[in-house]
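Hi,

Apologies if this is the wrong queue. I'm a grad student, and the batch job for Fructose-1,6-bisphosphatase class 1 from Pelomonas dachongensis produced an output file that my downstream script rejects. I'm not sure whether the problem is my script or the file. Here is the sequence I used:
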Amino acid sequence: MSRQTSLTQYLIEQQREHGHIPQELRLLIEIVARACKRIAIAVNKGALGDVLGSAGSENVQGEVQKKLDIIANEVLIEANEWGGHLAAMASEEMDGIYVVPNRYPQGEYLLLFDPLDGSSNIDVNVSIGTIFSVLRKVGHSRGVSEEDFLQPGKQQAAAGYCVYGPQTMLVLTLGDGVAVFTLDRETGSWVLTQDQVRIPDDTKEFAINMSNMRHWAPPVTRYIDECLAGATGPRGKDFNMRWVASMVADVHRIMTRGGVFLYPWDQREPDKPGKLRLMYEANPMAFLIEQAGGAAVNGGERIMDLQPTKLHERVAVALGSKNEVDRIAAYHREAN
Ligand code: AHM
Ligand code: MG
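Support response: The file is valid. Your script probably expects a header line. Output copied below for reference.
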C-alpha cells in the first residue's frame, strides 16, 4: 500500500521546503481543519442531532440563521480563540469582529469565515461547506480593529474551504498551489488526495442562477446568451449548466473538472454590487481559483485587487476557467 500523507505531514513538509510558512500559520490551519471535522460530524447527524431548521434569529445582513449556521460559527470560534495564533476573527454570521479575549495570548493572524455556506441546502441534504481566509495583521499598533481586516484579497496568507458532501474534503492554498485532503472517517485524519490542482483553461460548463436572468446587466446576458446558442452560435460549441446553490460545491466542481461560476450584480438591488460577500466568500475562493490556474473577477476587475471598505461588503463574482473569465471581463470592459 502506498504511504499516505496527512495534513500535518503536508504542512510540515511545506514548512521545510518553503520556509515562508511560519509555525503559527501551520497551527492555525490545523485548528481550522479540526473545527471543520467537528462541523462535519454535526452536519452528518442531521435530524438525529437536532441541528436542522431555523434558529429563529437573523444575521447582520437580515438573513434568517439556521441552527447549523450558529453551531458552525461557535465551533470555529471556540477552536481558534485559545491557540495564541490569532488576534481576531470575523464571520458572515457576526455583526462585528471577535477579538481574542485577554485571557489568551494574541497572535498576528486574522481569520475570516463563512461558517456554513449554502445554508438553503442544509435541510435538504445537499452539499454545504465552510469557507475561510487568513490575513496577517499589518502594522504594529496595539489592539485590533475592523480596519485591520480591510485588506485586498491578494494579501491573504492562506485560504480554503471544506465541503460537506458525499465525501468531506478540505481544499487549501498557502500561496503555492492548491492541495485537496479527504477526511478518512475511520481514522479521523485528513489525507492528501490531490496536490497542485489545475483548472482547465477552457470549458463547456457554466453555473449561474438562471431565474435572475431578466435582472442581469448586458455583459452577463450577452455571455450567457452566447453559451445558450450552442454549437451553431458564436461560441461554436454546446454548453452544459449546473447550479447547486452552494458556492462551495459549485466551486469544487470547477476545481475538479473546470467550468465558470457567476453570481452577478442584478438590477433589483442596484446599489448592492452582488449577493456574495467579498471577505468571506469571494476573496478566499478567488485565491484558490487563481492558485489552480483559473481567474476571478467582479466584472472588469480582478477580485483580489479590490480594496474592501467594510467587513460585510458584497461583490459580483465570475470565477473559474481562465479563458471564460477573461471573456466575461472583456465583455464588461467593452460595455463601459
Ligand atoms: P449563504 O452564505 O447565506 O449560504 O449564501 C451564499 C449562497 C452561495 O453558497 C450560493 O452560490 C448562493 O448563495 C446561492 O444563491 P441562490 O439562492 O440565489 O441560488
Ligand atoms: Mg455563504
